[in-house]
Amino acid sequence: QVQLVESGGGLVKPGGSLRLSCAASGFIFSDYYMSWIRQVPGKGLEWLSYISSSSSYTHYADSVKGRFTISRDNAKNSLYLQIHSLRAEDTAIYYCARDAMGPTNRPSDYWGQGTLVTVSS
Amino acid sequence: QSVLTQPPSVSGAPGQRITISCTGSSSNIGADYDVHWYQQLPGTAPKLLIYGDDNRPSGVPDRFSGSKSGTSASLAITGLQADDEADYYCQSSDSSLSGAKIFGTGTRVTVL
Fold first, then answer.
1. Of A50, B28, B96, B105, which one is least surrounded by beta carbons within 10 A?
2. Which tens digits make up the pLDDT trace of A73-100?
3. pLDDT at B2 over 70
């Protein structure tokens, strides 16, 4: 069965950096686009970024462009999100998700359980 | 950044039918981007409920249905059940954001 397991969250000081990881299993990872989405506890969902199956294309929300970098390693069935210059407002649960196959605006058909990032001094 | 507006809350009695609206604009839903819906039960990750405006993934009961017209979309739940209590989010893309994905503001469904 499809499994996505995020890791790398934790308490980070403002201005710091963090790399989140997502380990995928149960499907052919290299066939799928993947996304990162975050959610401030008690608030709504915010799409952050997606990456194409071969890493040739990435797209970011304007709110994180320049500070967040999405990447993947198909040999390791892993997705990553590098975050720089962390701010208090980056405190959130970060989800990785598999994007279903299709031409555009692919729905995220499987989600991980999320990893909590807390930015505080 | 959300440009898809949903009512903050909708409630209904068990067995009733409720609808949740998702209002966008000519650059997203009105531009004929697909609308997807997610259900987030308390304390869990979101789950895909409806994709491509009106399609259900395998395993989703047919009590859930989606529709789209103009610049809006709707999710309907018939035969409301206690375990439908959750947050529901619509999602689409927006051409004014270079095709970035966008989520709706979210709707909390309460079963009375």
1. B96
2. 999 999 999 999 999 999 999 999 999 9
3. no
Asked if B39 has any chain A CB less than 8 Å from its own CB, the reply is: no
For chain A, say whether B108 makes contact (Cβ under 8 Å): no
A95 CB neighbours in chain B (<8 A) are 45-46
Contact B52, B34 (CB under 8 A): yes
Residue-wise pLDDT tens digits, B55-90: 999 999 999 999 999 999 999 999 999 999 999 999
Closest-CA distance of chain A to residue B79, Å: 25
Q: Is A35 left (phi over 0), alpha (psi -120 to 50) or beta?
A: beta
| CA B5 to chain centroid | 10
- Could you tell me the CA-to-CA distances from A48 to A62, A95, B56, B66 in Å, in that order? 8, 10, 25, 25
CA A121 to chain CA centroid, nearest Å: 24
- Give me the sheet containing B72-77, strands edge to edge: B18-23, B72-77, B64-69
* Shortest Cα distance, chain B CAs vs residue A109, angstroms: 5
CA gap A3, A36 in Å, rounded? 15
Calpha distance A32→B38 (Å, rounded): 19
Residue showing tokens 């399609």: B55
